[in-house]
Amino acid sequence: MRITRSLEFQAGSKEEKLPYAAEDFPYVASRAELDYYRESSVPWHWHSAIELFYMESGGIRYHTPSGTAVFPAGSAGMVNTNVLHMTEILTRREENVQLLHIFDPSLISGGHGSAIEKKYVMPVITSSQIEMISLDPDRPEQAAVIDLIRGAFLPAEDEIGYEIKIREALSQIWIRLFELCGPLIQESVQPADRTVDKVKLMMAYIHEHYAEKISTPELAETAFLSERECYRAFRNHLHMTPAEYIRSYRMQTAGQLLADTRMPVTEVGYACGLGNASYFGRNFREFTGYTPLQYRRKWQNKDKT
């Protein structure tokens, strides 16, 4: 099982870079040790894979455009393909560990256009009603699915038939999830909300130009939206204004530079579009609770442990 203590993203995007061991088997089991993440939250991102997870200890809160869900230890859930989401740990008073199955839907459906894909996979991954599924251990029908998710981490990668066992386990989980979310699939089909694609375009623009001055009209133009539509899109999908997202991304990037490089603090501020050392230091402390130097010492020392 892969140990994860941070996330990697595609260049110029917030699409997560998926660490598949082999392209011909798009699956990875991951143990996310969340207390090693540099912040108490993982920023808004998405990925084309299915994310199945089990909370081994601690707790986590997921945010998606349509709402929020809390997952304490012993619970589990699924995040659908290409769904924007962010997470935050509930407390640092206990160890926060999340076990994840990350896999491409093709692992279950097989060849494109197969009967399995048409009947059981596409209805779920294309449903605008299903961003996330929550599984509660106190509900027997959901507890059974949680047991399957936990059990699927048991096969060892070096044992004979590992790939077949994983595919079989994920298929069993999938049909249970399909049954649980049946009512959502049967609801009147709503057209896919294309606004989320425009939000991703604007996020990508911010990630490429964060060091520069970015105005709301300029940002809106990249997605062919009006200022008002741009503001509404960020509010509806990310629950923040464009300016708040720009500031948040700049601070996250500054934190990464402070922890991973020896770049002088003054240069970090300018490199992230946050101005001179005084302005940068004041805003960084407001955002993280640390001065830039305190933050650098904290995470450079922690990375050595």
TrEMBL record:
<dbReference type="InterPro" id="IPR014710">
    <property type="entry name" value="RmlC-like_jellyroll"/>
</dbReference>
<dbReference type="InterPro" id="IPR009057">
    <property type="entry name" value="Homeodomain-like_sf"/>
</dbReference>
<keyword id="KW-0238">DNA-binding</keyword>
<dbReference type="InterPro" id="IPR018060">
    <property type="entry name" value="HTH_AraC"/>
</dbReference>
<dbReference type="GO" id="GO:0043565">
    <property type="term" value="F:sequence-specific DNA binding"/>
</dbReference>
<dbReference type="Pfam" id="PF12833">
    <property type="entry name" value="HTH_18"/>
</dbReference>
<protein>
    <submittedName>
        <fullName>AraC family transcriptional regulator</fullName>
    </submittedName>
</protein>
<feature type="domain" description="HTH araC/xylS-type">
    <location>
        <begin position="200"/>
        <end position="298"/>
    </location>
</feature>
<keyword id="KW-0805">Transcription regulation</keyword>
<dbReference type="GO" id="GO:0003700">
    <property type="term" value="F:DNA-binding transcription factor activity"/>
</dbReference>
<keyword id="KW-0804">Transcription</keyword>
<dbReference type="InterPro" id="IPR011051">
    <property type="entry name" value="RmlC_Cupin_sf"/>
</dbReference>
